Task: inverse folding
């Protein structure tokens, strides 16, 4: 019942991402992503020939590699180019030479996933002073107003909570006892999502939340509380696990106990790489997470629009993000500056789970 | 240390020339430092050919800014390696001192008092290394791997998960602007001044000769009246203090500090010392070689980053450089060992 260390590291990385998501909850606004897949990008007002430096946490992280590819696609559509530059270790010191290079090469914009919330600020400020637009994604920087920058938020807190309930409701016919298998009882991000889940559950009068248990993001603990849950509620129909550790542990258990799996439906936030085999053997029908590829794509469009002057950091400023549609800049709130939210999380099922390797 | 037993000066010279550690003739003509100068020129030509702005002032500032703290830590390490020891705790010491400084500053200390405390912490950490290595005679590689983890752990207790910011802008500007009227970063200027001092100490004082003697033959040095333990202890304290200085500069440069500041930099520091021609077996090396190595590594790293070379490939380049710098200066010794093995080889168990 163990999960490989890399898998666990990835899981914690994803979870720490979601902390940033919660910080934005205070914005209180619902998603403004008008998903309008026209198929053709609308590149109004964006200059051609822009150079955008993508500076991921490191060049190996599969999640960020997907994001960088999204950025490249965006700039290709806009007739510009992306340069990916970073180190192999997740340190600020490894990212600083890349920022300097962007300045030296007169890049138009930098898209960065900060390895350190503050240590990059002096260098980024220099870049900003040199006229380079700064966009952050994945993990935000906290530099105050120096430099001013746009944060691309992966998911809105309310969206994560509501969509997971909707996902489960669809699979169990909106009826029966349900439970939540969360991370630590003190986890801010999970608790915020659970708050929205409870709110959304009021829309399904026949679904009853019987218990919320906490696996502390530890596979062994998650398994113990899961077994307790199953024996306490033999008629349980569904489990939502808004944590990658919880959902993969539960999926592993159900996969080995087909009689239980027949009665209980599992969904939540999971990594496609970890969940792939459980989707294929039928244990799990669908789960969700934001799509890093789209995150990078949006960041690329945001950076290009800022560099072209067709978007600004002003609250309410809008820009087009190719196939993703139109986005609006949200007001700064509680520690987060101007930002945009990618949109509702991506749902993974048998039809698409193979396409993602993070 | 040459077995100099003749009395006639002319014979002394010829005797040295003939034996001198079995060095081939080309080794005497091509000193390691001379080779480094050529490597540096090659790197500069390479960089400026590939990148138009490579030789401009801003780039020079960036290179000096990126290398300053690493270079400062390399100086005391040079002397330690000269005595045949090692200090792998340097980057953790940088992190711990920066952390202490940040934490005290956050608690309302004046920034100067916090810096002084950081230097004291450096001295104490260095003294701990020195005590274990010099006084108790434990192997330095094991001791400093231990303190590498220990210092980082202490830093984590002091600061994690906080990040301290808000240092006076008059000080943090060293991370953004060069020394007035020049294109060099403050940390690099401090390094150059220190390099001159370390060079004089190593190459022109009795202490310097004692350090070389310890590296060549610790027992012989001890019997000649060199206070081996005291010198080694002192060098570790000096290393601690200068790593703390590097920690202060690193903190101000980033205008922030978190417990993991400088993680992994110890390998860069060791690489520079070895590339500078300091023998890992002790007893041989020059400060000018280390200065050249700093410039080479700084320029090469910047050139490769600007060319968009993947960081994995950059690691391969750095690793290869390190291997070459251990292999080539010791090639004479290696050849002799291989020959000796061959001579032994054909002789079966008689």
Result:
């Amino acid at each position: 019942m163990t999960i490989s260390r890399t898998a666990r590291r990835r899981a914690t990385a994803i979870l720490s991402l979601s902390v940033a998501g919660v910080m934005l909850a205070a914005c209180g606004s619902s998603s403004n992503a008008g998903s309008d897949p026209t198929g053709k990008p609308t590149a109004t007002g964006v200059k051609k020939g822009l150079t955008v430096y993508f500076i991921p946490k490191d060049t190996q992280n599969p999640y960020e590699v997907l994001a960088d590819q999204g950025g490249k696609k965006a700039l290709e559509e806009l007739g510009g180019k992306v340069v990916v530059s970073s180190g192999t270790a997740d340190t600020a010191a490894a990212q600083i030479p890349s920022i300097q290079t962007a300045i030296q090469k007169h890049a138009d914009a930098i898209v960065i996933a900060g390895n350190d919330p503050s240590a990059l600020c002096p260098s980024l400020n220099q870049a900003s002073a040199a006229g380079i637009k700064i966009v952050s994604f994945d993990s935000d920087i906290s530099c105050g107003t120096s430099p001013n920058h746009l944060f691309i938020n992966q998911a809105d807190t309310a969206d994560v909570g509501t969509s997971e309930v909707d996902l489960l409701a669809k699979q169990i016919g909106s009826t029966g006892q349900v439970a939540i298998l969360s991370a630590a009882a003190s986890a801010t991000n999970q608790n915020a999502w659970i708050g929205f889940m409870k709110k959304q559950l009021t829309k399904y009068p026949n679904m009853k939340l019987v218990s919320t248990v906490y696996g502390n993001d530890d596979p062994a603990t998650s398994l113990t509380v899961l077994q307790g849950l199953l024996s306490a509620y033999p008629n349980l129909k569904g489990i939502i696990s808004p944590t990658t550790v919880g959902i993969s542990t539960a999926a592993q258990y159900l996969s080995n106990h087909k009689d239980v799996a027949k009665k209980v439906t599992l969904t939540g936030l999971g990594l496609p790489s970890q969940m792939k085999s459980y989707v294929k053997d039928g244990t799990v029908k669908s789960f969700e997470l934001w799509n890093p590829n789209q995150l990078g794509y949006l960041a690329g469009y945001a950076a290009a629009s800022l560099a072209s002057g067709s978007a600004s950091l002003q609250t309410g400023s809008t820009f087009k993000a190719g196939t993703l549609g139109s986005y609006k800049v949200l007001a700064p709130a509680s520690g987060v500056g101007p930002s945009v939210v990618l949109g509702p999380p991506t749902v993974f099922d048998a039809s698409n789970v193979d396409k993602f390797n993070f | 240390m040459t077995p100099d037993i003749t009395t006639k000066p002319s014979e002394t010279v010829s005797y040295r020339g003939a034996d001198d550690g079995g060095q081939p003739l080309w080794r005497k003509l091509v000193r390691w430092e001379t080779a480094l100068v050529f490597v540096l020129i090659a790197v500069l030509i390479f960089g400026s050919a590939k990148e138009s702005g490579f030789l401009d002032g801003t780039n020079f500032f960036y290179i000096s800014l990126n290398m300053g703290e690493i270079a400062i830590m390399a100086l005391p390490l040079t002397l330690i390696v000269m005595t045949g020891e090692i200090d792998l705790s340097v980057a953790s010491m940088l992190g711990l001192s920066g952390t202490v400084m940040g934490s005290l500053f956050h608690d309302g200390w004046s920034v100067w008092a916090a810096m002084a405390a950081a230097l004291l912490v450096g001295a104490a950490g260095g003294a701990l290394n020195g005590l274990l290595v010099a006084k108790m005679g434990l192997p330095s590689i094991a001791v400093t791997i231990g303190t590498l983890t220990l210092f980082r752990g202490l830093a984590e207790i002091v600061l994690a998960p906080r990040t301290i910011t808000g240092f006076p802008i008059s000080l943090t500007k060293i991370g953004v602007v060069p020394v007035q009227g020049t294109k060099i970063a403050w940390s690099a200027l401090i390094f150059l001044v220190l390099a001159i001092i370390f060079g004089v100490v190593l190459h022109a004082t009795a202490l310097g000769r004692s350090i070389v003697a310890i590296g060549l033959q610790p027992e012989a040095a001890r019997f000649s009246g060199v206070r081996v333990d005291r010198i080694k202890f002192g060098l570790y304290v000096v290393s601690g203090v200068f790593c703390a200085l590097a920690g202060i500069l690193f903190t101000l440069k980033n205008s922030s500090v978190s417990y993991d500041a400088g993680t992994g930099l110890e390998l860069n520091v060791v690489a520079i010392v070895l590339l500078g021609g300091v023998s890992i077996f002790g007893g041989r090396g020059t400060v000018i070689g280390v200065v050249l190595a700093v410039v080479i590594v700084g320029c090469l790293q910047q050139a490769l980053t600007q060319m968009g070379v993947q960081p994995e490939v950059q690691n391969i380049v750095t690793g290869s450089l390190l291997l070459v710098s251990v292999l080539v200066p010791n090639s004479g010794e290696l050849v002799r060992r291989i020959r000796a093995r061959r001579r032994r080889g054909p002789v079966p168990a008689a």
Notes: The longest helix of chain B spans residues 228-254.
